[in-house]
Structures are given as C-alpha cells and as structure tokens.
Amino acid sequence: MKVRTHLLFSLLLIFAVAIFVNGCSENSISNPGEPAQSVGIHVDDIQWVSATPEFTSKMTALKKFVIDGKLITVADGGVVGGENTFNNSVVFPANAVGEDTYVTVEVKYNKHGIFYVEFLPGGTFNEFVEATLSWEHLDIDKPTIEELNIYFSQDGGKYWFPVDSEVMIDYDLKTATFKTSHFSRYGWGF
C-alpha cells in the first residue's frame, strides 16, 4: 500500500511540476505543437489604419472580402495574389511547403473599417516565404507610412504582434514586403 501511495504522490508531483514548467499562465497562448508565446498587444490597444471611403465602398459591394488561391507545389513553389487581391501577395520558393498545398490570400475589412490581409492555411513552412502587403487603399499620407507598423495575429485577431523581420518599402507600388515562416492575419497600425 505504501508503494502505491508513494507512486501516486510521485506522479502528482511530476504532473504539478510539468504544469508549472510548461506554463499555465494567462499571459501565454499556444497551439498544439507550437511553443507558447507571450500574449501580444490587445486589438483595442492598436490605432488601426482605416481603408479609404472609396475602398470601403468597393469592399462592401464585394461583400467585405476578396480572395485569390492557387496550388503551391513542393517542386516549383509559386505566387498567390497580386492584382486580384489589390497587390497583396505571397511568393513561395521551391521546397517551402512539405506537400502540395492550396494557398489563399484574402483581403478583408471588418465592421470597424479595419483593413487586413489573411494568408491561409495557417502553419509554418520549411523555407521563408515573401509576403507583400499594399497600403494603396489605406487612408494615410505618404510620409505617414514610415510611422506605420505591420502587425500579425494568430488567434483570430484578439492579440497582435509587430512583424519582426526586415520590411522592404516600395513607394512606387505602395507595398511593404517581408519574409515570414508562418501564415496568419496581417494589418496596419500605429
């Protein structure tokens, strides 16, 4: 009986230590198979950039989103998006995906007029992909672009993180391009 009690106590102790080490904190979010990350910036704490009234009208007529999709192959990679998604796109090098994958670029705006781009499916890639976001339809002036941040969310838009890779700005095309190893939702804000 003592052996069972000691075994049960040991198992409970190991379980408690595992919970403590892995974190049961309310300040972390994670998906199965991904390391826990601290909660980012709450959606209400970012000053989001709205789309222009003309673009908002166009998106309303299109039922609030535009989508482009394509099968990306392991051997060839490929490009999804572009002109059909208002110059928002992603470029895959060969071998970036582990298996042939259907990828979409979705340009959306919500009821608050926040314009965002969602790249799907979620997950990580074998190689960095090059995501391009357009600010052409944002309600901002050209000098303001230097002050903007690109944020991403992996929890449906409740918490956001600044993009942490180098961002290349193209003033002629009104785009910002960066490398990423995962897909999520992207938006512009201060």
Write the layout of secondary structure elements.
Elements (H helix, E strand, L loop, with lengths): L1 H21 L5 E2 L7 E2 L2 E2 L10 H9 L3 E8 L5 E5 L5 E5 L8 E9 L5 E20 L14 E5 L5 E4 L5 E3 L4 E15 L1
Antiparallel strand pairs: 1-2, 3-10, 4-7, 5-6, 6-8, 7-8, 8-12, 9-10, 9-12, 11-12
Describe, in plain words, how this protein is organized in 3D.
The protein is of the alpha+beta class. The protein has 2 domains: 2-37; 42-189, Chondroitinase Ac, Chain A, domain 3 (Sandwich). The chain is 16% helix and 42% strand. It is built from 2 helices and 12 strands. The strands form 2 sheets. Strands 3, 4, 5, 6, 7, 8, 9, 10, 11 and 12 form a 10-stranded antiparallel beta sheet that branches. A two-stranded antiparallel sheet has the order 1-2. Strand 9 and strand 10 (159-162) form a beta hairpin. The protein is globular. Mean pLDDT is 80; it is low at 3-36.
